[in-house]
Write a structure and sequence with these properties.
By secondary structure, this protein is α/β, with parallel strands linked by helices. The protein is 36% helix and 20% strand.
Length: 508
């Protein structure tokens, strides 16, 4: 579970529409009310090829319609601020940012100097207020995560049922009051993971100490800029600008845009520039004639949530969720990953679809050891979260041979797996024997008529040849083209036909 998810759990217990006793004056409750009513646009990076899957999840869980970006791997949707915790619980998104403003048909000047001058002027005209309010709330939640976790552990014994059969709510009331208190203070961020290939960053030097009046109004108090020790000067926010640029018709580079746009941001807010120990990361995304300015809401990718013991080809949790969602798991379904490696897919499945039964299997003993450790680690985190009580998870890990699975015929509902690419593990030559044998064994254990499989592979030529020989057993649905660490791969959705699987034989 990532830091963001734990912070989300904190906010989930603190509802913005609850009635609270004012801590100071009515201005605090007014700020609280304004936060609740604020509607902002959230941008999310998702695994390339799974944009529509992520949009479906947003519609299902948040009730918001999503817009797919022209730049693959991004979606945009509108939410009210009170749903911020639910946004962080989305399983298909990697990174989140709040949009300051979008320009769909921006006309760049032909010369480099004029184009960069326009970007400088743009920084001073943007509506920063609401996005900075969201950033402040988001960061306050992360700052109080450690204190909240310790408070939960120390008060675990007080969470027992009282005489009336209800939990003691004293600690939760204190947490609510603490939340409102923190909402008036300016937090700090640590660092945001860089995960785009065409990204360049800038550092600007600056020692200004006075905050911009507009931002001070957002934070509610001039003192919220941050106080240092006695006798020391006030600490101002640190920032960096990250520019992601796509297109070959620009007269400037990503570094040029980040430098000049960042200089204008610094002049406007009087912030300090720091590439490593920054509080605010301003995002400048340029895709041909489209510009999106945003503020990052995540320190690290949300896909780092389940796995603690990694292998050479561990699948990202966001990608695992997208593959599982494609097969539409139903309650009581038996879902297996016959080549699970460290168990990313079954662990994600057991977390999101607890009414199904998940099995992780692999022939590599070291991989199965990592999978078992990952499962135990997740169980331990859940146990701490539930104050020492854990109900377990519907998942098992078994070492087996993919070509001779110890499972009954027609006993499995769903198969989801990341097949060997033939690069880091195995070889493309071995795949010519492995793929047809795998598909045959999968067809044996999968229920005819209702069974389905979602298979990821980069060795598309070998897979297509193997599948063409088994059209009587597997019917191919749609195919998603994805990018896995720079490799162009495909996700195949297959449906099991009614025909009974025959005896094993050579298909070449």
């Amino acid at each position: 579970m990532s830091d963001i998810e734990e912070a989300s759990d904190t906010l989930a217990d603190v509802h913005l529409d609850d009635t609270h006793k004012p801590l100071t004056e009515n201005t605090d409750s007014d700020l609280h009310s304004s936060l609740k009513e604020t509607v902002v646009t959230i941008g999310a990076t998702v695994p390339t090829g799974f944009e529509f899957t992520a949009a479906d999840e947003v519609k299902e869980k948040l009730g918001s319609q999503s817009r797919i970006s022209k730049d693959r791997g991004k979606i945009y949707f509108e939410i009210s601020v009170e749903k911020l915790s639910q946004v962080h619980r989305l399983r298909s998104v990697d990174n989140l940012f709040v949009v300051v403003q979008e320009f769909t048909e921006y006309q760049f000047k032909e010369t480099k100097e004029d184009a960069l001058k326009d970007l400088e002027d743009l920084a001073k005209k943007l509506p920063w207020s609401d996005p900075l309010t969201v950033w402040k709330l988001n960061t306050n939640l992360k700052k109080r995560k450690t204190k909240y976790k310790k408070q939960n552990q120390s008060s675990a014994s007080k969470e027992k049922l009282n005489d009336n059969g209800r939990k003691d709510r004293a600690d939760e009331k204190d947490a609510d009051e603490e939340f409102l208190d923190h909402a008036q203070n300016t937090p700090g961020l640590k660092s945001v993971e860089q995960n785009t290939e065409k990204t360049e960053e800038m550092i600007l030097a600056g020692d200004q100490l006075d905050g911009k009046d507009e931002f001070l109004n957002i934070t509610g108090n001039e003192d919220t800029v941050g106080d240092c020790k006695k006798g020391e000067e006030k600490q101002v926010l640190k920032f960096r600008v990250t520019c992601n640029r796509v297109g070959d018709k620009h007269s400037f580079t990503s570094n040029d845009a980040a430098r000049d746009f960042g200089g204008a941001v610094q002049d406007y807010f009087q912030w300090k520039a720091d590439m490593t120990n920054f509080d605010v990361e301003v995002l400048l995304n340029i895709n041909n004639n489209e510009i999106v300015v945003g503020i990052a809401l995540t320190e690290e990718s949300l896909h780092r949530r389940n796995i603690t013991h990694f292998g050479p080809t561990t699948l990202r949790s966001t990608l695992a969720y997208g593959m599982l969602r494609l097969c539409n798991p139903q309650p009581t379904d038996i879902i297996i990953d016959p080549m699970s490696g460290t168990g990313a897919i079954p662990i994600e499945g057991a977390t999101e679809w607890p009414t199904c039964y998940h099995i992780a299997g692999d022939n590599n003993p070291q991989a199965m050891k990592r999978a078992a450790n990952n499962i135990c680690s997740l169980l331990k985190k859940n146990q701490n979260k539930e104050s020492g009580t854990s109900w377990g998870m519907p998942i098992d890990a078994i070492q087996w041979d993919i070509c001779n699975l110890p499972l009954r015929t027609s006993s499995v509902d769903v198969i989801v797996t990341d097949m060997p690419f033939g690069k880091r593990i195995g070889s493309k030559k071995k795949n010519w024997d492995l793929y047809p044998a795998c598909l045959m064994e999968m067809s044996r254990i999968c229920r005819p008529g209702t069974g389905r499989a979602v298979l990821l592979t980069q060795d598309r030529k070998c897979f297509a040849k193997a599948l063409s020989k088994m059209g009587h057993l597997w019917q191919k649905g749609h195919t998603l083209w994805v990018n896995i660490g720079g490799l162009h791969a495909a996700v195949y959705l297959l449906k099991r036909t009614l025909e009974k699987a025959g005896e094993k034989r050579s298909y070449w």
